[in-house]
Every structure is written in C-alpha cells, then in structure tokens.
TrEMBL record:
ATP binds at I275. This is asparagine synthase (glutamine-hydrolyzing). L-glutamine binds at D84. The record marks E354 as: Important for beta-aspartyl-AMP intermediate formation. It catalyses: L-aspartate + L-glutamine + ATP + H2O = L-asparagine + L-glutamate + AMP + diphosphate + H(+). It comes from the Bacteria. It is an enzyme of class 6 (ligase). Belongs to the asparagine synthetase family. One of its GO terms (biological process) is asparagine biosynthetic process.
Length: 610
C-alpha cells in the first residue's frame, strides 16, 4: 500500500488493491477517473472468471470499436458500460498478447494471467507512459514511477554510473537503464513476460519501419491532405473523455493546430492554457500575444499565468520529487505550472503538441544537422578529416560540438546523436571525476544509440539523414526526455496529457513520407504547414519558429546562479562523480546554461542518494 499511495498524485480519485490467495502477486492502483467514472471501472480489474487481472495507466482511445468487435465475437460478459480497462481484459482473452496491435492509445499495462502464471508488462508503442521495474531479493516490483519502487525497504539505492555517463550526453538516461542501479525502464513498443519460475522474456512488438507504406509518386498536395485527415482523426480520438478536456496553447503551429482541430464540431468552447514569464529575456521571449491571438480565433476560454524566478526556485524540491531521476530540461518548470493552471480551472485532460517537430523537420538546428550528415558522406580522404580535427583542437575547439561532429564522421558514425545533446564527449570527460575519467576513457555515448542505428540500417525504407534524425528521436529523446517530462509534470498536478501528433497511425503515416517532401524548399515543417494552412491563420504558420523555453541564462546571473554554485560545490565535495574545478568553471566563470543539467543531477543525488 505504501508503494501504491506514493503515487496518489497520479490517481487522487480512488485506490484499489488485489493480492492473490497464495500471496505470490499483488496489483495496486491509484485512479484518475477519466473514462467510465463508475465504481465498476475501478482497478485492479478482473475478467468474468477472475483468470485475468489488470492494472493500467493511460487510455485506449478506440476502446468502443474494439468492444463492438468483441461483442460480435461473443463469449464475453461485461461488467461496465464503457470502461477501456475491461476492453483490455477481454481483448487479451481473445487474442492474447497480439491484442496490443489493436490498441490505439497510450498505456503502461500490468496483466496477470492466472492460468498460465505469467505477468505481462507492456509499454505503448511510442513510450508516452513510463513503466519501471526492479528484480531483487527474489521478487519483481514494477510501477509507473520509481518513487513507488523505493518504498520497498530492500530496494537498493545506488548510482548506475554508466547511465550517468550517458545522461551527461542526452539530458536523460537511455532505456532500459535508469540512474538507479538495478531499476530499469521498459522501452517504448516493448513487452516483458515474467513466468512464475522467474524466467523473463523481453520483446519489441512495434517498430515504425514495420508499418510504413512509402508515399512515392504522390503529389505534395495529396500527402498534405492525408496528413491533415489523419491528424484530425487523432485529435478527435483524444477528445474522448467523461471529464473536461483542454489544450496547452503556446501560439506556435503545433499547439494552434491542436486548438483549431479540437474546436471543430464542438458546441462548447475549447479551454486553452498558456504560460509566460514576468519579463522579456534575450534567451526567451514570451509568446503570450500569439497564444491570445489563436485563442481568439477559435473562441477559446483562455487562461494564462506568468512565472518568475521565485516560482522556479520554490518548485525545485517538488520538481526533483516528481522527476524520480533527472530529466535535465528546465521546461519541466513551466509544464508543471501550466498543468496546475488547467487543473485549477477544472480541466482533467489536456492535449499537448509534442512530436510534430521530430516528424516534420521542425527544428531550425536540424537544417544544419542534415547538411552535416550529407557532408559526412562526401568522399573526403580520412587524412584531411583528421587534419581538420587536429586543427580544431589546436585552435582551442577540442570541446566544441564542431569538433565532436567531425570526430564522429571520421569514425563513420552519424553526426546527429539526438535533438537534445548536452556535453560533447571531450567536455564530458573533463567534467567527470578522475576516477570516472579512467573508468570511461574508452567509452562514448555512441554505445547508447548504436542499437537504434542498427535497427534503422536494417529496416528503414529510406536511409536519408532526416529519416535517421526522426527515428532516433522517436526512439530516445521523445520517450525518455520530452514525453517523460510531460508525463511526470502533468501527473504531478493530477492532470492527464494526450499527444495527438504521436498517435501511432499518424507516426506511421509521417514516416512514410519521403525526405524530399518534408524538406522541400529548405523550409522547416513545410509539409505540416501546407497541411494546416486554412485551418490556422497564416500569421501563425509564417512566423519564425520559437521553442518552449525558460530564461535560465538570465536568471543564472542572480540568485539562481548562486544557488547552483553552492549546490554543485557541495555535491562535488561529498561525491566522487564530477570534477569540482571543471564544474565551477562552467557555472561561475562561463555562466553556461548547461550548468542546469549538472544542477538537476546534484539536487537529485541529495534527495535520493545522499
């Protein structure tokens, strides 16, 4: 029960517990009531003869269609009116684990098969919902958050040092590892089967390349029309709810499209929520005016909140508690506050815009990465590349991203290692303590993404640089950083976030589009803009791209910088993880906003391992 109730923020509307008669397995659940609010829909839930038990987090958006299919087949007795949880049980009864192929949604599922004495843990295709597990002292424990596993007094608490090494590259840890040694996370699109005798089998049940149909020979106009049709369908599915649903609105193309499509055919005003800051900063300028403009266009019931440095500092302890392990993106702060804003206005579910940039070449920096990937394949002699590498090092750029990219080219590795790179390998090595420098002197973070690249090379129907960039971020940065950030912060406010751009059918369509169509004219997100022109105003479509950010660089000049310096100095004094001189140089002398990544790590260590 302690494990279950440590997640009360994820489910404030009720609690359930089931333990089998032999005491060999138990399922606990905290409920956030969204679909079928009746008591009959509470979890853990069993089928009619109690040979299957399930606890799950998420939503099956097409549960009504699956239920109709099951009813036509016959042989099922239903206890609820329209619970998607019960659909999972009867679907598994009918089709076994292959039932997952029918689910359109986001989910982390734990299903116990009494007859076969098997436990199934299943994470949705994209990894929108997290699922952690740990095997120790002869037992397996699992949960939606690590903090629940830590309620087990016998759960070891120790740093997984190789994951730390990769964290310094990617702002998060690559699945299946976490920063806790012995605690793992199930990768997206994967299931884990655990038999009663302790044998375990993990399998990837979905990869986007197995479900693409290359759109060769179709006009850009026809492809854009298909994109809009499928996106409209995805947004409509994510309106399914028995509680109020809203939209996070920044005023960019993605969130504006969500708001516009959401409002179509709806008699009620869409409720929109926006976060800004209490001033204008060079590193981040408020988008409030654009969000207000878009809210007016769709007749939204619009709400906003301005954040200050005080809000950020006050939230830090709560942020670390919600993260479980560092999610070193300061955008965690505004995501929590906009979720809290929505919840305080009675909204329980919100649609968010994650995924569009990764699928449609939406980041300006990706133009540079694509160009460098293409240059990397030019027939330039290796000797010239090595001379260039030595030249950069001699000129003092040995720790720069330019040096790092050239080094990768010499090693025949992709230039692009993800949309959220933190520290290049040389700088990362200098930041590590002498002990860890020695331990990892022959390791690079290429090892973390090599398996993804091998799948890409084996399966991708088109092997251009943009397809690699999208595929890598679909498999790593999105599930383990951006979506983890959204899930942990929104659920921290007891609010569910839904991601229309990452509906798996929409993703399959987007990854079926030839690279040349997505990059036509050198304009970022050109295909998506073409698809939604007429749905949202041209003024939104044609304005310069601006990401969702936090003015950390400016706030570091004052109290935040002092707090970061003191926290990191104490962390370095008390651990043998980072080099104090290198860290304080980054924070104090350079005032580098990347110091946030180390600060997040130090706060986590103090909360969980000190």
């Amino acid at each position: 029960m302690r494990m279950r109730d440590s997640l009360v923020h994820r489910g404030p509307d009720g609690a359930g517990l089931w333990i089998d008669s032999q005491g060999r397995i138990g399922l606990g659940h905290r409920r956030l009531s969204i679909i079928d609010l009746s008591e009959a829909a509470r979890q853990p839930m069993a089928n009619e003869d109690e040979t299957l038990w399930v606890a799950f987090n998420g939503e099956i958006y097409n549960h009504t269609e699956i239920r109709c299919e099951l009813e036509a087949l016959g042989g099922h007795r239903w206890r609820t009116d329209h619970s998607d949880t019960e659909v999972i049980l009867h679907a598994f009864e009918t089709w076994g684990i292959d039932c997952v192929a029918k689910f359109r949604g986001m989910f982390a599922i734990a299903l116990w098969d009494v007859r076969r004495q098997e436990l199934w843990l299943i994470r949705d295709r994209i990894g929108v919902k997290p699922l952690y597990y740990s095997l120790h002292h002869g037992r397996l424990v699992f949960a939606s958050e690590i903090k629940a596993l830590l309620q087990d007094p016998e759960q070891p608490r120790a740093l997984h040092e190789e994951s730390l090494f990769h964290y310094l590259s990617f702002l998060t840890t690559p699945a299946p590892q976490t920063l806790f040694d012995g605690i793992r996370k199930l990768p997206g699109g994967t299931w884990l089967r655990v038999r009663a005798d302790g044998t375990m089998e993990e399998r990837r049940y979905w990869d986007v390349w197995d479900h693409t149909s290359p759109l060769l020979g179709e006009t850009d106009e026809a492809i854009a029309a298909r994109v809009l049709e499928k996106l409209r369908e995805s947004v409509a599915l994510r309106k399914v709810s028995d509680v109020p649903v809203g939209v996070f609105l920044s005023g960019g193309v993605d969130s504006s499209t969500n708001a516009a499509l959401f409002s179509q055919g709806d008699s009620q005003r869409v409720r929109t929520f926006t976060i800004g800051y209490d001033g204008e900063y060079p590193s981040y300028r408020n988008e409030l005016s654009h969000a207000r403009f878009m809210a007016e266009q769709v007749g939204a019931d619009h709400h906003e909140r301005l954040l200050s440095l005080d809000d950020l500092i006050a939230f830090l302890p709560r942020m670390i508690a919600l993260q479980d392990e560092p999610i070193a993106d300061p955008v965690c702060v505004p995501v929590f506050y906009v979720s809290q804003l929505a919840r305080r206005h009675g909204v329980i579910v919100c649609q968010v815009g994650e995924g569009a940039d990764e699928l449609f070449w939406g980041y300006p920096s990706w133009k540079t990465s694509k160009m460098l990937e293409e240059w990397n394949h030019w027939p330039v002699p290796s000797l010239l590349k090595r001379l260039g590498l030595h030249g950069l090092h001699w000129c003092g750029y040995g720790e720069s991203i330019h040096y790092e990219r050239l080094r990768r080219g010499i090693l025949h590795q992709p230039v692009f290692w993800g949309g959220a790179e933190a520290f290049p390998e040389a700088l990362k090595q200098r930041l590590l303590s002498p002990r860890l420098q020695r331990q990892f002197r022959h390791l690079t973070s290429w090892e973390a993404i090599r398996p993804i690249h091998e799948r890409f090379q084996a399966k991708a129907w088109e092997q251009g640089p943009l397809q690699w960039m999208s595929y890598l971020d679909l498999n790593f940065r999105l599930p383990e950083l951006l979506l983890m950030r959204v899930d942990k912060m929104s659920m921290g406010a007891s609010l569910e976030a839904r991601v229309p751009f990452l509906d798996h059918e929409f993703v399959q369509l987007a990854m079926s589009v030839p690279e040349a169509v997505k990059t036509r004219g050198g304009v970022v997100k050109t295909l998506l803009k073409q698809a939604v022109r007429g749905v949202i105003p041209d003024a939104i479509i044609d304005r310069p791209k601006q990401g969702f950010g936090v003015p950390v660089q400016e706030w570091m000049q004052g109290r935040l910088g002092t707090l970061m310096q003191d926290t990191l100095a104490d962390f370095c004094d008390r651990t043998d993880i980072l080099d104090k001189a290198a860290v304080l140089d980054l924070v104090c002398r350079q005032r580098d906003p990347r110091s946030w990544y180390l600060f997040n790590l130090a706060l986590w260590w103090k909360a969980y391992l000190a």
